[in-house]
Structures are given as structure tokens and as C-alpha cells.
Specification:
Layout: H1 2-30, H2 33-71, E1 89-97, E2 101-108, H3 110-114, H4 117-122, E3 133-140, H5 146-162, E4 171-175, E5 182-186, H6 193-217, H7 222-232, H8 240-259, E6 262-263, E7 272-274, E8 280-282, E9 289-290, H9 312-317, H10 322-337, H11 349-357, H12 370-379, H13 390-403, H14 430-436
Antiparallel strand pairs: 1-2, 2-3, 3-5, 4-5, 6-9, 7-8
Domain Protein kinase: 89-401
GO molecular function: kinase activity
Keywords: Kinase, Membrane, Receptor, Transferase, Transmembrane, Transmembrane helix
Length: 446
């Protein structure tokens, strides 16, 4: 649009030049000096007037473009309790990269944060805090096009809709007015749950190997072994009860999302973040939709589908609801129980579809109790309405934890296939996309 307006301006200048040439030719042919002088004066006056108009027009176009890109739907005359301007942020290091921007660890002055609505809701800062606080900041990349800007604003609007919840990664603030455009989120020190679980499994294995070696070589060194274990069992090492607490916290967060009519559509351990005190929060809202929207995915080249976390009705009928999120929660429970095991490790995405339709479900891991496995399998019921709700799951885990029952052990069989093969990428091949979107009435753009 802007380029076409500039082209129109160039055309005006060309027209003025042609008019000037025509007048000069006419005046010369008439050999009338007075006419020539008057003509030149008229042309100069017209040229000056046109230049002034064009300059004002260009200024208006440039201002409108800038205000649209950096202030779309924003009233800049008054502040909002969730604005955070970039000059208040001190960036540290890059920790991630998304489709339209990068994620950084950053520091923000506590006084700035204390004025935001989200900080007050979450008690993220208190009035007596004086030090800078650590946050995660998503930055819109330089040179982002209008579509990327719209997606960035959609994410901000979604986070505003979600609001505050204890087990959701909350938005602290944002800036859509000044460069660089940014979204400020809570920072979770221990990264995503999948890596956290796998790191924990590796440390447990190394601790067991150390204990076995030390005990065999010299029983007197058992005290040294205990010291090593105590050093390892810090906040990064978890207990079976911690695993149950993870399940409780995730089910509580998902219960909240369901209550505000949102469908996550990409619930997985990789999209759960772990804090310093072994608290977990749900993140990864790139595919999240309102439950009253058309939740049929239309294929596009950049769309990523988390096939091995998708319910049968999502795979075959393209229906995404809170119940399909419950199915994905069952896969998350499998990831938690196995300390980061890969679901369906020996099954390709294309092979998975007919297997699930035939009734196939993953076997019970050896370290998973039968009652816990029963909960997981209930989440994988082919009939969506026969699956438990997140409210029922939250209450169930509260009851399990209060009873102190042993539902999970750390007696892990490292030779199992789901420890040998990492989960395949959730990016779906074109072949599988064609299978997923063969249903009548579903348009594709593969």
C-alpha cells in the first residue's frame, strides 16, 4: 500500500514536468515573451503548491503507517496498567527463539513492575522490593511484517484474556508502542519439564552408579555416597511425590483454561515450565483457541501439529476441545511417570493413526502403579465424554497426595525403547497432512 502511494507521487511529478515542457514549447512557438514569462510564473506557483501538498501527504502516510504498526488500536494519550516500555528493560542473554521473535532473560526495576496490574495480581513484586527482578522477554524481530506483527499482538491479547493463574506462565506486561515491541512474562528458572525430567533421570542414574561402585569398593565410603546424594538431591532432583504434585498443578492450570473456554491444543511436557521451587506452570499457547471458535486446523506449510499428543477425534475429525486436551494430559502423565520417556517411540506418525483407531494404547511402564495407569488410560478413552474432566483429575490428585499412596517409583528400566528414542518432531510431514485433512469439507493448501 505504501509503495503504491509513493508511485502515485512520482507520477504527479512526471505530470508536472510534462506540463512545464508543453507550456514552454507553446510559448516559444508563439514567440510571445509576456506569455512566456507569465507561463513560467504559473508553472513555478503550481510546482510549489504541489510540492507542499505532496510533502504533507507523505508525512501523513508515514505517520499513519508507523502508528498502525506500532500503535494499532492503542490510545497513546493515556497509559495502561500493563504497559512496560523497552527502556525499563535491561537485557541479559538469549534463551530461546520463536517464529517471529527471540526470548531473553532480562531485568526490570521493581518499581516499574509494581505499577502493572499483572504484577499486583500475581504478587510478583511487593512495595518493599527495591532490587531489579528477573523476567523473560519476548521481542518482535526487526523487520517483522504485518502478519508477524498481528500474530505478536494476538499472543498479547490471548495472554490478556487468560489473565492470572498460579499454574499458568503469566504476562507481566507488554509494549506495542515503542521499539522493540515486547511481551514480558514470568521467568521459570529450571526450563521446560521434559528436559527437567530427563536431567533428573540422568542424575538419579549417575547417583545409583556411584553408590554401587563405592559400596562394592569400600563399604566405609557409604557416608561419602550419602554426601554425594545429598548434594545431588537439590531442587533439581525430584521425588515420586513431586511427580504427583506436577500432575496436580498441571491439571489445576488446565481446569482454569477450560473454565474460561480456552483449548490449549498443544499440551506436552515441553510446554510446561519449572520454577526454582519445583513449581510448574503451563506455557506454549501458540495453538490455543477459544472453544467457541472453529477448531478445525487448516493445513499450511508452517503449521506444526503435535500428532503424538493429539486425541483420536482431533486426528480423524479435526475436533479440538477440552476433552482433547485431557487426552494430551494423559500423554503428559506418561512423560512424567517415565521421567521424560518418549511416547510411541517405535511408531511413526503415519502408523499411529490406524493403531489408535484400532484401540491400541501404550503399555503400563514398569515403575507405574496400576491405579496410576488406570488414570492415564481413562484420559485416552476413544469417547471424549467418557474421559475425566480436569476438575475431576485435579480432585483425584489432591486425594492421592493427601492419602500418601505410592503411585510411582524410580525403579526405571533404562533399556525400554521410550528411553532410547527421543520424541519425533511435532512438525507433520506433507504426506501425513494429506491423511489428516482428507475429510470432506476441509480445505488444504499443501
Amino acid at each position: 500500500m505504501f509503495n503504491s502511494q509513493v508511485n502515485n507521487q512520482n507520477w504527479i511529478f512526471q505530470l508536472i514536468f510534462m506540463l512545464l515542457v508543453a507550456i514552454l514549447v507553446f510559448a516559444t512557438a508563439a514567440i510571445a515573451i509576456p506569455v512566456l514569462v507569465v507561463s513560467i510564473i504559473i508553472v513555478i506557483m503550481i510546482s510549489v503548491a504541489v510540492v507542499v501538498v505532496v510533502r504533507n501527504f507523505r508525512r501523513q502516510v508515514m505517520w499513519n503507517a508507523d502508528s498502525y504498526i506500532y500503535g494499532h488500536n492503542i490510545d497513546c494519550s493515556k497509559s495502561t496498567p500493563c504497559w512496560i516500555f523497552p527502556e525499563s528493560i535491561v537485557f541479559d542473554k538469549k534463551i530461546g527463539e520463536g517464529a517471529f521473535g527471540n526470548v531473553f532473560i532480562a531485568k526490570i526495576n521493581a518499581k516499574v513492575l509494581s505499577k502493572t496490574m499483572y504484577a499486583k495480581q500475581s504478587q510478583f513484586v511487593s512495595d518493599d522490593v527495591k532490587n531489579d527482578l528477573t523476567v523473560a522477554v519476548k521481542l518482535l524481530k526487526d523487520g517483522a511484517n504485518q502478519s508477524e506483527f498481528d500474530n505478536f499482538c494476538d499472543e498479547i491479547d490471548l495472554m490478556k484474556r487468560i489473565g492470572y493463574h498460579k499454574y499458568i506462565v503469566n504476562m507481566i506486561g507488554y509494549s506495542k508502542v515503542k521499539k522493540p515491541l515486547c511481551l514480558v512474562l514470568e521467568y521459570m528458572e529450571n526450563g521446560n519439564l521434559l528436559h527437567f525430567l530427563r536431567n533428573t533421570r540422568n542424575k538419579l542414574r549417575s547417583t545409583e552408579e556411584t553408590q554401587s561402585f563405592m559400596s562394592t569398593e569400600n563399604p566405609k565410603n557409604l557416608e561419602t555416597v550419602k554426601l554425594i546424594q545429598n548434594e545431588s538431591l537439590s531442587s533439581e532432583i525430584i521425588t515420586p511425590n513431586d511427580l504427583l504434585n506436577f500432575a496436580l498443578q498441571i491439571s489445576s492450570g488446565m481446569e482454569y483454561l477450560s473454565s474460561i473456554k480456552l483449548v490449549h491444543c498443544d499440551l506436552a511436557a515441553r510446554n510446561i515450565l519449572v520454577g526454582a521451587t519445583k513449581n510448574v506452570k503451563i506455557s506454549g499457547f501458540g495453538l490455543t483457541r477459544k472453544s467457541d471458535e472453529n477448531l478445525t486446523y487448516l493445513s499450511c506449510k508452517s503449521r506444526r501439529l503435535p500428532v503424538k499428543w493429539m486425541a483420536v477425534e482431533a486426528l480423524f475429525d479435526h475436533m479440538f476441545t477440552s476433552y482433547s486436551d485431557v487426552w494430551a494430559f494423559g500423554i503428559v502423565l506418561f512423560e512424567i511417570v517415565t521421567l521424560g520417556g518418549s511416547p510411541y517411540p517405535t511408531v511413526s506418525d503415519c502408523e499411529l493413526l490406524p493403531l489408535l483407531k484400532s484401540g491400541y494404547r501404550m503399555d503400563r511402564p514398569k515403575n507405574c502403579s496400576q491405579p496410576m495407569y488406570d488414570v492415564i488410560v481413562q484420559c485416552w478413552n476413544e469417547a471424549p465424554l467418557q474421559r475425566p474432566t480436569f476438575t475431576e483429575l485435579r480432585k483425584l490428585f489432591e486425594e492421592i497426595i493427601s492419602r500418601g499412596d505410592s503411585y510411582i517409583s524410580f525403579d526405571i528400566d533404562e533399556e525400554n525403547s521410550y528411553y532410547k528414542v527421543h520424541s519425533m518432531s511435532s512438525e507433520t510431514s506433507d504426506i501425513l497432512k494429506k491423511e489428516l485433512f482428507k475429510a470432506p469439507g476441509v480445505e488444504t493448501s499443501i
